[in-house]
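Researcher: Next sequence.
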Amino acid sequence: MKLRLNTLFTVICFSAAILSAQNKMAPGETAKLIADRIVKSTSYLFENKKTGETYKTVKDLELSPDVQAQSKYNQWHYTNGVTNIALMELGDKLKDKQYETYVLKNMNFVFNEGNMDYFKKLYDQAFAKGGWDAVRNINWYMLFRGKRLDDNGPMGASLIELQKRYPNEAFLDYINETAKHLNTTEPRLKDGTIARIWPHENTIWADDSFMAISFLCRMGQLTGDNKYFTDAANQVLKYNKYLWCPEKQIYYHCYHTDNKEHGVAHWSRANGWLFMAQADLLSRMPKNHPLRNAVIKNFQQQASGIARYQGANGLWHQLLDKTDSYEEITGTSMFVFGMARGVKEGWLHPDFIYVAQQGLKGIMSKITPQGDVTAICVGTGIMPSLQYYYTRPTQENDPMGEGPVLRALVEMMDAPKYTEIKAEEQYDKIGNQQ
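Model: Next structure:
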């Protein structure tokens, strides 16, 4: 029994020491740890998952669906789009070009004539044999599928950021294809609201606010065409119409238009996607845009609602209104990012930086001194039961969480400190009572 108590005491002390070290790390230092680990671990190799053979290029290689990019950071996935954006923001903040050079290398690895042609042939072959289900087994299938915003929205957004720095005809062609998809083929309701045709036909997903707006606002900036900003702003306002819960002052994960019912969950990351999307839009839309003030008002409304659900450790829970759900880092990071950006840009009252500061402490508690990011909820669809959200597994060191975490850390690097009006400084303004 004594041995067990001693062991428990040692574990508690060790955990406390780690937490103390984590809380002392500066946001910039932590961001660099995470970013440098990502850069170092990206191999730029292809691997045959059956034989274990690796290749620097797949050009002239025999077609095989077992051949895939070895590194998760070389996959074509919306989470890498967010991470690419975050890494370029980090490089801009630090005035260090190595991170945008890394993103460029990633995209050149994909937009390489030999590599892209190889996987396009595999994709076409798989589709001819087995249709949409079959293509999911092909590396980079989202690059070629282009049927949903997960395929092309955030990756296209990160490509726009890269295109502004390193103009490339292949990049621009893909950007224009994505714009065409959003403008002409992306499923929408009659009022223009972007919706998916599953799990019910015409279901509005909060996630799609960022998947669409991250691209639309950057396309507006790239082209100077106001229609992209107008579309993005209308998405914000329509999503608020369909998803906002006035009783709880937060968003539902979804709304099914066929039976006119909301989903069961106020999922943290879904609310985070909406919050981060608005911050991205407001950072780019013209100051005189007729819908700008409406977006700012909406952003302020969400910030006030979110702040009321922050937990004791500075983190927000997987289900915002369920304190028995686990503390989760991606939603927390999106809230911290948006609040810090909002205060610095003047969209939010300065008091919200206190919420962001407490959120930063929570984020740090889930990052190890080596820069490993924990408590990342895995990819999550929509299900008609809270149990599904409660039991979603968590993972470590995945772009699903690393992108949002990096964006929050970058935004907090130069965030102002919280200040309050002291009572003693105001007494002279109070008249003497007779």
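Model: Residues 38 and 73 are 8 Å apart (CA to CA). The chain is about 55% helix and 5% strand.
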